[in-house]
Amino acid sequence: MSPPRKGSSGPRKTTMVREDKPALESDRVEDQAHPREVYNLIGQDVALAQVSQAIRSGKPPQGWLIAGPPGVGKATLAYRIARYLLRYGASDEGPEDLSVPQNDIVARQIESESHPGLLILKRREGDRGKLQSVLNVDEVRKLETFFGLTSGAGGWRVAIIDTADDMNDQAANALLKALEEPPKRAVLLVLSHAPGRLLPTIRSRCRRLDLRPLPLPLLQSALVKALPDADDSARAALAEVSEGSLGLALRLAGEGGMMLAQEAERLLAARGPLDVQAALSLGDRVARASDGIAHFGQFLATAMSQRIRTAAATGEARSLDRDIAAWERIVSSFQRADGLHLEPRQTILGTANVLHGLQRRGSRHNSG
């Protein structure tokens, strides 16, 4: 209930306060802390040392391309950089590990999304209560206004794009313009899972910072802290299938996550004639899972990319170009299905058909 106004008389008027549903965020794992609330960067000491040296030297690049697989800490590192720059500027006044205490006013402002020197660009919640399928040009054009503002306290401005992979062509061109004409005392942090797919001109205007998958023991230790109520066998299974990605492990831990990951592996491992009915049945199971089409697509893409990397490392004779083209086709198909809220059945049937074609051509190649 609202308190009475000072000096008023009579009974207080009771008002009903509606608790709004939290806004969807493309960069949050459900039931886990958002990266802006995370102060412990796990397993990325090499990248942290590189960025620390550049910032504390007083001459950081105006654009960083922070690259690496999903869920390895790109956003956590970006917020760590933002906190330091907005607290200490490009100086050596702060700690070498770029840490800022959680109770610092800058940290509190960033957590509450109220710091005037920080701009976050990402996919937003659309009119239908779903995340937009792309990071559009109107969002990226906010950079022009933001960088045109007078610098706030400390004189620095930081913008984070999470992720550049979500941009459409118009948005990519708008980002390129911002990188071509960067203001002083401003840093643009561009996050990407697949930097090779970005415009070469965007890549050339940023300093590359690569983050690596976490070693298995480190990932297991992180899961003990993140999932204290899970049993040891469940955490071990999550660590094994998540390929060094804490973010992916946490997504798998959510409702239906392990089921979707296992189904993705089964679809990849399927041999013999295309089983149309099995693919349609899988589509029904995916439809029943929370955010099933998005998560299944992510798990499938991750498992496919691991197989492609293994094939490249072992020198398998099969065509890597063909496999990569199939991966890109499948990723685009799931992104389209998620963005347009399509039923999963046809998307998964189409994916099964693509994988079956790869299997057939691979069999012919090996037999020849």
Description of the molecule:
This protein folds into two domains: 35-210, Rossmann fold; 255-367. The model is unreliable at 1-21 (pLDDT under 50). It is built from 15 helices and five strands. Helix 8 crosses helix 9 (232-241) and helix 11 crosses helix 13 (292-314). Strand 3 (157-161), helix 6 (169-180) and strand 4 form a beta-alpha-beta unit. By secondary structure, the chain is α/β, with parallel strands linked by helices. Strands 2-3-4-1-5 form a five-stranded parallel beta sheet, with helices on both faces.
Quick check: average pLDDT? 85
Q: Give the low-pLDDT segments.
A: 1-21
Give the number of domains: 2
- The number of strands is 5
Question: How does the major sheet shape up?
Answer: 5 strands, parallel
Gyration radius (Cα, Å) is 23 Å
Query: What is the CATH homologous superfamily assignment of the largest domain?
Result: P-loop containing nucleotide triphosphate hydrolases
Order of helices and strands: HEHHEHHEHEHEHHHHHHHH
Relative strand content: 5-15%
Side-by-side strand order of the widest sheet:
2-3-4-1-5
Query: How much helical structure, as a percent, in the residues?
Result: 40-55%
CATH-assigned fold name of the largest domain: Rossmann fold
What is the CATH domain class of the largest domain? Alpha Beta
Distance between the ends: 78 Å
Inertia-based shape: globular
CATH hierarchy: architecture of the largest domain:
3-Layer(aba) Sandwich
Structural class: alpha/beta
Tally the helices: 15
